[in-house]
Amino acid sequence: MARGSRSVSSKWRYCNPSYYLKRPKRLALLFIVFVCVSFMVWDRQTLVREHQVEVADLQKTVSDLQHLLEELNNRQGGTVGKIDLRRKAKSGKEVLDDPIDVERREKVKEAMLHAWGSYEKYAWGQDELQPQTKNGVNSFGGLGATLIDSLDTLYIMGLNEQFQKAREWVANSLDFNKDYEASVFETTIRVVGGLLSAYDLSGDKVFLNKATEIADRLLPAWNTPTGIPYNIINLSHGRAHNPSWTGGESILADSGTEQLEFIVLSQRTGDPKYQQKVENVIAQLNKTFPDDGLLPIYINPHSGAAGYSPITFGAMGDSFYEYLLKVWIQGNKTSSVKHYRDMWEKSMRGLLSLIRRSTPSSFAYICEKNGGSLSDKMDELACFAPGMIALGSAGFGADDSNKFLSLAEELAWTCYNFYQSTPTKLAGENYFFYSGQDMSVGTSWNILRPETVESLFYLWRLTGNKTYQEWGWNIFQAFEKNSRIESGYVGLKDVNSGVKDNMMQSFFLAETLKYLYLLFSPSSVISLDEWVFNTEAHPLRIATRSEDGIVGNINEKQKPVPRIGGRKEGRSG
C-alpha cells in the first residue's frame, strides 16, 4: 500500500453514497456536502500527487454524490437548491476544477490585467509598450499589434469590458493604409490571425472584415514566378521584395507560415483566392521535398530551389514544420490535407537525426545542421517542438506514437531546465551543449517568450500529468519576480544579472499569458478537438475539408463561444 493511502481510503468511506442511501434527510445532505468538500480540500494534494490513479474514481464518486444530492433534494421538494460540484465539458464529460488551478489562473488573469492596463494607459493603439519609459512604439507600422494580439486572450479570460473597448478601436481606428514595409509573416500571424480568432470566438463580423482587408493588402507578395512569396511588402502601394540580408532569398518560416490563416480566411469568406495562394507554396516545396523532410532556411522565390543555408527548428525554420501539422489538424485530418501530414512525418523522422544528448545529465536537444555537420546549439524558440511533437504523436502507429511522445517529454525537460539553470530562473535566447558541461546559456537575454509554456500546455492537455502545470507555475513566478514592474512587464537584457530591458512584447499577452491561463483551465476551454492554435497562439476553428480540398463559406455556422469567468520578430523566424 502506498504511503498515506490507508488514511485517504478510510476518510473517503464517509463519501460513499450508499452510506446515506437510507438517510434522505436534510441533515444527511448537509453532512455529505460538509464532509466531502472538507476532505476534497484537505487531501487534494495527496490525492493528486500521490494517488493520480485514483482521480478517475474520485470523479465518479463526485458524480455519484451529485446524483444523490439531486435525488435527496427532489425528495424534499427542491428546498435545498442545486449544488454543482462539477464543470461540464462540451462533450458532457464531467471534469473537476482543481481549487489550486482556479487560484493560479486567477493570478495569470491578474497579470494580464496588469499588462493590458499598462498598455491601455501608456500606449493605446500603438504596436507595443515600452514600460520603463511609459510610452508606445510602432514596431509593426502602427497596426495596434498588442491590441489585436490581445483580443482573443481578453475574450477567453472573460474580460468583457476590455474586449469591447478594443473592439471599438478595431472598428473605428484601425487603418491599414500605411506607407510601411511590413513583414508578411508577422502581419499574418499577429494581425490576420488575431482578427480571425476574435471572429471565430465572438462571431462579430467587424473582425472578419478587417482580416479580409489586411489580407488583400498582403496578397501581392505571392506574385512571384513560383508563387513562393516575397517576405516584405509595402502596405500602401503593394510593392513586395525580400530583405537585402537574405541575398534576395525568401525565408522558409516566413513563406510557410501563412497557410492556416489564409485557408481559414477562405473558409470564412467563401473566397478561394487566399487558400490557393498559400497552398501553392506547399505544392511547390513538395515537388522537391527531401526524404528527411528537412529544408534549409533560404528558398529561391524564382526557382523554388533551396539555398545553401542552415537547417534548424529554431529561428527562420521552426513554424514551417509546425504548420505542416496544424493545417492537417485544421482540415480535420481528411484525405484532402493528408499530404501535409505526410510531409510532417518525413520532417519528424529527419528531426530524429538532429537529436543528441548532453553529458553528464543526458538532456535531449535538437541540433542545428550546416551542410553535413551538426552544431550543438538549440534556440529557446525551438522549445515549441515538444508541444508540436506531442500534438502530432497520436497520428502515428502505436510504437512510433509512444516513441515521439517520449521524445517530446524529454525535450520539454530540457527546455524547462533552460529556465531552471539561470539565477533568475528565466531562459536565455539560446543554449550550447559542451561535452561534460550539459547546457550553457549563449545569448543571454529573455524577451518574455512563450515557447516552453506552450509545450507544457500541450503536454499537460495530452497526458494529464500535473508536473507540467507545476513547471509552468514556476516559470510564471519567475516572470512575476523578474519582469513585472509598476507599468507593465519587461524582458531581461541578461538572465544572469537580471538587468531589465524596456519592451513588453505583444506576444507576451497573445501567447505567454494565454498558454499559462489555459494550463490551469479545464481542457474543455478551447478544446483541442475543436480548435487549433496558430503560431501566435490565436485559436482557429477546425473545419472539415472536402475531397477537392475546398471549403465553402462557413460564415453562417459561426456562433460565439461562451466565455468563462512564431515564432516572431524579436522572435524572428
UniProtKB/TrEMBL annotation:
Cofactor: Ca(2+); Mg(2+); Mn(2+)
EC number(s) per entry: 3.2.1.-
Keywords of the record: Calcium, Coiled coil, Disulfide bond, Glycoprotein, Glycosidase, Golgi apparatus, Hydrolase, Magnesium, Manganese, Membrane, Metal-binding, Signal-anchor, Transmembrane, Transmembrane helix
Enzyme class: hydrolase
PANTHER family the record matches: MANNOSYL-OLIGOSACCHARIDE ALPHA-1,2-MANNOSIDASE IA-RELATED (PTHR11742:SF6), MANNOSYL-OLIGOSACCHARIDE ALPHA-1,2-MANNOSIDASE-RELATED (PTHR11742)
Role according to the record: Class I alpha-mannosidase essential for early N-glycan processing. Progressively trims alpha-1,2-linked mannose residues. Produces Man(5)GlcNAc(2) from Man(8)GlcNAc(2), but only Man(6)GlcNAc(2) from Man(9)GlcNAc(2). Has difficulty acting on the terminal mannose of the b-branch. Involved in root development and cell wall biosynthesis.
Similarity section: Belongs to the glycosyl hydrolase 47 family.
Official protein name in the record: alpha-1,2-Mannosidase
Organism: Clitoria ternatea
